[in-house]
């Protein structure tokens, strides 16, 4: 099997950003950005220092990340996303107009990583994460694009390295091709105990992608992986 691609995502921007969105990126994103220098001690990026550290890979519109940050103030969540329109969506929920993105109060337990999450994962220390989320990622359904899937046999060792024993990795997908891929990939590894459920557990906040999948008649699957 070919190794993961150097880049897992396609474009980083959809429609042209409006002036308000550009202002959010310029003034608010730096205030919430997870600094690369903190990767060796990720808890130091939060104020106050969190009791647990979580990572969301590809937060989409930010609904799940915001719900988790609000519901778990003692946990520090690093939310990673490269798509600028998705980052703007999260920021606009935190800072609705006409609030000033340069001065409005922001949550101390949320930090954003506006780059490929794999680079951050490689820089993190061993067993530093208590929980990780991968919810409705781009399935890259064509066989020739399989190298772009985040769940990849060659990537599992690195993910297992940063999750502490007993730590949890949550995965969700509505794409049948990706679901089959996840089953096969997770069935051939020993780092995680795997539980598959057909309905979203109550502790998993919903996302717009799940809502779109259900409205289109697709059936999501949910995986809870526990680090051995």
What do these coordinates show?
The protein contains seven helices and seven strands; from the N terminus they run αβαβαβαβαβαβαβ. The chain has 228 residues and is an alpha/beta fold. The chain has one domain: Vaccinia Virus protein VP39 (Rossmann fold, 3-Layer(aba) Sandwich). Strands 3-2-1-4-5-7-6 form a seven-stranded mixed sheet, with helices on both faces. Strand 4, helix 5 (156-162) and strand 5 (163-173) form a beta-alpha-beta unit. Helix 1 (19-32) packs across helix 3.
Please identify which CATH superfamily we are dealing with: Vaccinia Virus protein VP39
Question: Remind me, CATH topology?
Answer: Rossmann fold
Percent in helix: 25-40%
Based on DSSP secondary structure assignment, what is the total number of beta strands? 7
Give the number of domains.
Answer: 1
Which structural class do the helices and strands define? alpha/beta
Report, as a whole number of angstroms, the end-to-end distance: 25 Å
Tell the overall outline.
globular
Quickly give the CATH architecture: 3-Layer(aba) Sandwich
Strand order of the largest sheet: 3-2-1-4-5-7-6
Radius of gyration: 17 Å
How would you characterize the largest beta sheet? 7 strands, mixed
Q: What is the typical, i.e. mean, pLDDT?
A: 94
The share of residues in extended strands comes to 15-25%
What is the CATH C level class, in words? Alpha Beta
Low-pLDDT runs of 5+ residues are none
With helices defined by DSSP (H or I, 4 residues minimum), what is the helix count? 7
């Amino acid at each position: 099997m070919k190794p993961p691609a150097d880049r897992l995502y396609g474009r980083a921007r959809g429609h042209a950003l409006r002036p308000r969105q550009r202002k959010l990126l310029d003034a608010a994103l730096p205030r919430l950005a997870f600094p690369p220098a903190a990767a060796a001690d990720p808890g130091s990026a939060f104020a106050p220092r969190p009791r647990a550290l979580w990572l969301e890979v590809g937060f989409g519109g930010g609904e799940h990340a915001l719900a988790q940050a609000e519901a778990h103030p003692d946990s520090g969540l690093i939310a990673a996303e490269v798509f600028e329109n998705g980052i703007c969506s999260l920021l606009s929920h935190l800072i609705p107009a006409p609030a000033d993105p340069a001065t409005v109060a922001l949550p101390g337990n949320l930090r954003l990583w506006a780059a490929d999450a794999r680079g951050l994962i490689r820089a993190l220390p061993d067993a530093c994460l208590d929980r990780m989320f991968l919810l409705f990622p781009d399935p890259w359904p064509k066989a020739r694009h399989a190298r772009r899937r985040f769940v990849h046999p060659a990537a599992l060792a690195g993910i297992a390295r940063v999750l502490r024993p007993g730590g949890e990795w949550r995965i969700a997908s509505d794409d049948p091709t990706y679901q089959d891929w996840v089953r096969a990939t997770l069935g051939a590894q020993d780092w995680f105990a795997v539980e598959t459920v057909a309905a979203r557990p109550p502790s998993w906040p919903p996302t717009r992608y799940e809502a779109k999948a259900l409205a289109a008649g697709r059936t999501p699957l949910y995986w809870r992986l526990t680090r051995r």
